[in-house]
Amino acid sequence: MGMQTHINEDRNMSEHLYNPDILQKLDFSKSPAVFKPKISAANPGAEWMVVRPLQRADFDKGFLQLLSQLTSTGNITRKQFDERFTQMKMSGGHYVTVIEDTRSSKIIGAATLTVEQKFIHNCSLRGRLEDVVVNDTYRGQQLGKLIVVTVSLLAQQLGCYKMSLDCKDKLIKFYETLGYKLEPGNSNAMNMRFEDPS
Ligand SMILES: CC(C)(COP(=O)(O)OP(=O)(O)OC[C@H]1O[C@@H](n2cnc3c(N)ncnc32)[C@H](O)[C@@H]1OP(=O)(O)O)[C@@H](O)C(=O)NCCC(=O)NCCS
User: Fold this and answer.
1) Which one of 68, 134, 166 would you pick to mutate in the ligand 1 pocket, going by the greatest count of ligand atoms within 8 A of its CB?
2) For each successive 10 residues of the chain (198 residues), what is the average pLDDT?
3) Which residues are the signal sequence here (predicted)?
């Protein structure tokens, strides 16, 4: 109980999940993605747009509503959100990254980089790209590319030797333009489901 009280007292709505400085330094010229016009995480192309780590305040900025355009989220309370944020931050390796429209204070895009620690390849790090989504009214304006390239360059910057993702067939071309490749003989996504999410 003491621990719980401590966490709640420390809650700071503008607290970032990870250090935002690293996003400002990403070199978008290292990505094969073509941006027309040119944009980056530091300069996303409009003064009302910002690319940054998840914040606690994003519970009130439509982050979960955005995720519900991707899959079912359930009815997550502020307390649950806060506790998961704290757990992710304490355990490390969770880089939930968002695009905010600061005019409306709404989260309009998101992607997560999860970094796994390995013994193989000389104690390497492997990145996984997950939960990529852009608000449907903002699609087709390079924001999908922007958020995916941001977390992919972040993985490289953090020292990952590779970045992996699972996607629907119709998105293969999209990810290929961003530097991802199907590996012949090694591109079979398999899952074991333990419960019905509905
Ligand atoms: C996939 C998604 C993130 C793309 O976001 P977006 O902001 O529309 O993407 P962009 O504007 O950066 O598009 C980049 C390119 O990919 C293409 N593209 C985007 N979504 C596509 C789709 N669903 N199918 C085929 N091509 C697609 C665009 O035509 C564009 O091509 P261009 O640069 O030659 O014009 C967005 O459609 C989305 O949130 N979809 C629902 C959730 C989802 O499927 N997530 C991915 C799970 S793997």
Assistant:
1) 134
2) 49 93 98 98 98 98 98 97 98 98 98 98 98 98 98 98 97 98 94 81
3) none
